[in-house]
Protein: Ribosomal large subunit pseudouridine synthase C
Amino acid sequence: MAAQAEWMFRALRSGRRHLSAGRQWEEKWLTLPPVTASATVEVKGKRKGSGNELSSTPTTALKWIVRCCPNLPISLLHKLFRLRQVRLLSPPHMDTQHQTLKRVAAKYTLNAGDRILLPQSVQQKPAPTHKPHSPLTPQQINFIRTLVIYKDPAILVLNKPPGMPVQGGINIKHSLDVVAAACLNYEYSEPPRLVHRLDRDCSGILVMGRTQTSTTVLHSIFREKTSRALDNIGEEKRILQRRYWALVLGCPRRSKGLVTASLGKVVVDNGKSDRITVVDNSASLSSQHAITEYRVLASSSQGYTWLELSPLTGRKHQLRVHCAEVLGTPIVGDYKYGWQAHRKWGGFDLSYVEDSCEELLKEETLPFGLNLNNGSISENHPRLHLHCKQIVLPNISQALQNVQSFSNCDLSLGEGLELVADLPPYMQRSWDVTNG
Structure:
């Protein structure tokens, strides 16, 4: 009798424990409906040259979430995948109390019966209201047009100001792609389009395509630059050349060289943010090869060094990570990858410095809340000193003349375009200080 009572007590305690685990599960995760067999393959359209046959593509994790949760902003979904907060529960083991969930990427192919789990916090996100953007003021339009340093029938080139994001997102009111579409069409009916990106706090040359054809050509040029980077090492003339100027803390051991260090993304702060880092195992599926050429432009008695950086690949935060983790000389004002170096350097008040340098934008002296004067090394809060100084690329407008499509245009015809952008005022002041 005692043994039976003890068994019943253990069963009751176990049941309460499973019930508690189930409640914790429901509090933490939002479980989407299982993927149906008919949804695992989506019809995309007719296959070329095959009569009435239809081509199809598998349903990915991102597509299924969009179908089940159409009110969730796409920017939020990309952030959840980027921070690895999306989970997969596959059949037949649907016991959520015992199974270890699998993290999935946005392009992960789903099978019938799979279930996607999202953090419960997404239910607290308000549905997007899609409020129209307020029209730009004459002062804002004039300011954006002063950023144009080159224009021809195919491309538009801007000298991007630091502090202005290239693309829109959560809590971003004005981005360059939006304002350019509003006031840089000129005589064209279609807006200019982005073909590459710069970090929000980075400044310098930003190239945009003025037509669909020129945008496609530019996309192919930037993609080939990255995919064929290993083949282009040592070549004096490349189809695309980019040169950045950066002021760094310290000085590299060699005056010039080549950095070949693969990069990967890691999640920090319990999934609240992420950062890029050098990956030792280059064979890892999550790593991306990244190559940067560098040379010393000038050194100062204060210990600062001006570098010219030429990225042969186009990876996120490539130059910042290569400078900080490989060369051991983080870029001035890069508190994400060079916080400890700035703290040891001294002379900087870091008590209120944030990654986005919002403290530097308190005094609104230009449209869009920009301030390009504050942030030199003479001040307590230096800004990011990274500037895309020069780009050399093919004369696309010339190459596209007298051709019917970009597939048969010869990008080697004629001389290339060499575009140069002036330093922002605060970087020019740092240049004057270190070279005075």
